[in-house]
Design a protein that fits this description.
heterodimer, A: 280 residues, alpha/beta, 7-stranded antiparallel beta sheet, 15% helix, 32% strand, B: 308 residues, globular, binds flavin-adenine dinucleotide, binds flavin mononucleotide, binds FE2/S2 (inorganic) cluster
């Protein structure tokens, strides 16, 4: 069952470091029962800030028992720099859980989970859910270098296998996160691939899944002003069941899309033939 | 003592003075988890055109100091779908719905207005005249008093007499007063102001414009002084015309500033992106701000900054 989204003042419990990333644990019972792939939109900067838009983060971990949730983030610009200064006891305004989660396979089986950089964050709770349903999660995490890999603490326990890649070879296998996929899919008999990371990685994962004849679900990261569906900034061209391309909101229809439905090569454009293109 | 928050925009009576702003609350549905929409003064919908519109390419937004730029390009599903799905939903919630209409020609505005005529729940129209006129090399209607007047007259002619028509003005003009006067002369029952200001941002690393649409509309607290100035000037020139004020309202006192300048009600736009609960919060803060300053009625504060 999905939890309805709520706007809540959340108390900061802990701000920890995890390699190149920070992890932020919050008391937010309303969000704790999120589904893997959903995200939270966080207000940054305080009451009189010049930063008027929310920042969105995948929900990494949640514990409905103690009413906490955790996100993992990289300091990127001024909003995340502000988050990095939070102290236990501070309050942040959080909206969530938002967006559509990763769909689970109809029958339990093997699945390949692919995370680029902090994109692995939503995959650990997904591995848990797959594991609990009797399935098997094979995790592949990749990053530019070792410090930019993100692992959940108990990643090894929940996953049937873990493969690590880095572009510079500073950890795991040197190469791209997509390199090990064909062999892994063949070996495990996986029928579904889940991916979260940069757009180019998601496009490549979709291509591998297509070649291997399996389904890909991708969690996209488009710039979002509101996260809740009212601003229309977060769209990308997605093909509907009717075969028609629409500029589709990634905050409400996504962030998880079947990889095949996203027109990866056309992101950043309005492709010819898109519903409503050409106006009058 | 509780402040009497009732107000009116001409013949339209509102139980409370804070509304959503067009394009910043979708068609209402997405805000329902956070806001009791019926408790607001009203819901102003995203601008609606005759046909579905894909809008522009991404990136469509850039955060700027105390504001943002957007170039959405009026993405929407068109008036037929709005009337079939969204308006009935809003009406069921008990909302007072102000439908924003847009077009590329006087005919398109009028056609949309005609299709909305008689729809239950609709209490007023807001005419978004900040659209390019396809018949006049893309010149924005709101920048030419005659073109603005033709749109307003076209919409007024096909709209039920008891449904007020508000013309939404652009601040991007040399003098906003003649445009306001032209709209009122053409039959506008009230004015909404302000729409976004045209702006631009450049990524200094790539040396390219940030927005795919190159330029975009600036909104948020950064533009509030411009909104206050526009409302002030129009109120001074047209003491009786109902004004729905908007532009950079984030807190109750911001709304009060627009009200003192002459707004009879206030819409909240960009602040909703940072806080989905902004509208009811601002409405409550406004009531407190009025009480703290000794106002018994919201309407006593309207235009109070003007010399009497
Ligand atoms: C669904 C979703 C999930 C995400 N999950 C994570 C996560 O788990 N960990 C993490 O570190 N980051 C995540 N991001 C990216 C994160 O939102 C941005 O890094 C962050 O917004 C940057 O804010 P800033 O103020 O530091 O940067 P600035 O560049 O100052 O931000 C300016 C504006 O651009 C937007 N923006 C900038 N970069 C991005 C981006 N990459 N994606 C979306 N909006 C952006 C900001 O929201 C803000 O409105 C996610 C984004 C989305 C959309
Ligand atoms: C993302 C976005 C979309 C908007 N879309 C519309 C629109 O469809 N029609 C319209 O009349 N105004 C539109 N506006 C303008 C707002 O209604 C409002 O006039 C303006 O943003 C100033 O108010 P604010 O500072 O409170 O946002 C839009 C503004 C934003 C930020
Ligand atoms: S982020 Fe505002 S509609 Fe998606």
């Amino acid at each position: 069952m999905s939890v309805p989204p709520r706007q809540v003042p959340a108390e900061v419990l802990q701000l920890g470091s995890a390699g190149a990333y920070l992890s932020l644990r919050l008391r937010a019972p309303e969000l704790a029962a999120f589904q893997p792939g959903q995200f939270a939109a966080v207000a940054v900067g305080g009451r009189h800030t010049g930063m008027v838009l929310r920042r969105c983060f995948s929900l990494y971990a949640g514990d409905p028992g103690d009413g906490t949730v955790e996100v993992v983030f990289a300091v990127h610009g001024k909003g995340t720099a502000w988050l990095a200064e939070l102290r236990p006891g501070d309050q942040v305004d959080v909206v969530g859980p938002l967006g559509r989660p990763f769909p689970l396979p109809a029958r339990p089986g093997a699945a390949v989970l692919v995370g680029g950089g902090y994109g692995s964050a939503p995959l650990f709770s997904l591995a848990d859910v797959l594991h609990a349903a009797g399935g098997e999660a094979h995790l592949v995490v990749g990053a530019a270098s070792a410090d930019k890999l993100f692992f959940g603490e108990e990643a090894w326990q929940r996953c049937a296998s873990v493969t690590v890649t880095t572009d510079d070879g500073s950890a795991g296998v040197r190469g791209l996160v997509t390199d090990p996929l064909p062999e892994l899919i063949a070996r495990t008999g996986a029928t579904v691939l889940y991916a979260c990371g940069p757009m180019a990685m998601l496009a490549a994962c979709t291509a591998v899944a297509r070649e291997q004849g399996i389904t890909a679900y991708t969690a996209v990261e488009e710039a979002m002003a509101c996260g809740v569906g009212v601003c229309m900034t977060c769209v990308l061209p997605v093909v509907g069941d009717d075969g028609v391309t629409r500029m589709t909101r990634s905050c409400t229809a996504g962030p998880v899309f079947a990889g095949e439905t996203v027109r990866w090569a056309d992101v950043g454009t309005v492709p010819t033939g898109t519903w409503g293109a050409g106006g009058h | 003592m509780a402040v009497d928050m009732r107000t009116n925009l001409g013949t339209l009576e509102l139980p409370a003075p804070v509304l959503t702003a067009s394009g910043c609350a979708g068609y209402g549905r997405e805000l329902a988890p956070y806001v009791e929409l019926a408790a607001l003064g009203g819901v102003v919908t995203k601008s609606i055109m005759r046909n579905p519109r894909s809008g522009r390419a991404t990136p469509r937004m850039a955060e700027t100091p105390s504001g943002m730029l957007n170039s959405i390009g009026l993405q929407g599903s068109g008036v037929d779908e709005f009337v079939a799905n969204d308006l009935p939903w809003l009406t069921e919630q008990g909302c007072r719905v102000i439908v924003s209409v847009a077009g590329g020609s006087v005919e398109e505005y009028a056609e949309v207005a005609k299709l909305l005529r008689g729809q239950p729940g609709l209490v007023a129209l807001e005419v978004n005249i900040s659209c390019p006129n396809v018949e006049s090399r893309g010149e924005v209607f709101a920048c030419d008093p005659d073109a603005a007047a033709r749109v307003v007259a076209g919409v007024r002619a096909v709209t039920a007499p008891d449904v007020p028509v508000l013309a939404k003005l652009s601040p991007d003009v040399t003098d906003i007063v003649p445009v306001a006067q032209a709209c009122v002369g053409a039959g506008a029952d009230g004015l909404s102001m302000i729409n976004t200001l045209l702006g631009m941002a450049i990524d200094v690393d790539t040396a390219r414009p940030v927005l795919a649409g190159v330029t975009g509309g600036l909104s948020g607290p950064a533009i509030r002084p411009v909104a206050v100035r526009c409302i002030w000037q129009v109120r001074a020139a047209l003491p009786e015309v109902p004004i729905l004020g908007m532009g950079g309202v984030r807190h109750g006192v911001d709304a009060l500033e627009l009200v003192l300048a002459g707004a009879n009600a206030v819409s909240v736009g960009t602040a909703v992106f940072g806080d989905p609960g902004a509208c009811p919060r601002i409405q409550a803060e406004l009531a407190e701000a009025l009480a703290a300053r000794g106002y018994a009625r919201f309407t006593d504060a309207v235009s109070a900054a003007h010399p009497r």
